[in-house]
Amino acid sequence: MLDDIKKTLWATADKLRANMDAAEYKHLVLGLIFLKYISDTFAARRAEVAARLADPNDEYYYGDAAAEDLAAELDDRDYYTSGNVFWVPEGARWEQLRAQAKQPGIGKHIDDALALIEGDNPKLKGILDKRFARAQLPDGKLGELVDLVSTIGFGATPGVARDTLGQVYEYFLGMFASAEGKRGGQFYTPASIVKPWSPCSTPTPARCTTRAAARAACLCRARNSSRRTAARSTTCPSTGKKATPPPGAWPP
């Protein structure tokens, strides 16, 4: 089912880019997918917390508090950070962006939303790619792309959401790599190549005979993990050095 959804999403997204270069367009698509992901996980966590606050049998139970007190309690960020969920300010939530998708200034609205998210999540500072206001898409295409990404459902739990994000990201990166030609392989290696080399990422004399082989395996794993979106460093076992994700990588 997810495979069919990925193919449909790609076909529509590729059609929307018109004559825009795939190397530029991928940042818009992947950026919106990530924005939808963190908004969905935030909304799911908020709904979970609200249910627990209203459950007399739950440790979060908030008693017979007034509605405004409950609303204020839902804005306690500890509930979200404890669940490993990014805090999404009200003006940056997906439903707000989707409501403005058909407006001429949707690109600036998205950039502003990303700036708000960065401001409230130090881990994301300087990572989110704010290029939507200057995107060279025909009129209305960015709004259509927002509507398309709105159809992606990331699931009701953070674990399911991360798995879905990883699969959608991997599929789109592979398709963009194909669309870009030789340049597309710079930061993407097909899974069919990664898997045979994966055992070498923990090299032993029986597994890897050269440092070059171990280094290749290390780089393959760093580039193509389902969490390639994480803004973190991966240590290469053959050299002990950090293999950092490519510029523009998106955290989970």
Any overview of this molecule?
With 252 residues, the protein is mainly α. The chain has two domains: 2-181, N6 adenine-specific DNA methyltransferase, N-terminal domain (Ferritin); 192-243, no CATH class. The chain has ten helices and two strands, in the order ααααααααααββ. It has helices spanning 2-16, 22-53, 67-74, 78-81, 94-99, 106-120, 141-149, 158-180, 191-197, 211-224, and strands spanning 234-235, 242-243. The chain has a two-stranded antiparallel sheet with strand order 1-2. A hairpin with a 6-residue loop joins strand 1 (234-235) and strand 2. Helix 1 (2-16) runs antiparallel to helix 7 (141-149). The longest helix has 32 residues, at 22-53. Mean pLDDT is 76; it is low at 184-252.
Radius of gyration: 20 Å
Low-confidence stretches: 184-252
User: Could you give the count of β-strands?
Assistant: 2
Order of helices and strands: HHHHHHHHHHEE
> Termini distance?
23 Å
In the sheet with the most strands, the strands line up as: 1-2
CATH H level, superfamily name of the largest domain:
N6 adenine-specific DNA methyltransferase, N-terminal domain
Query: How many domains?
Result: 2
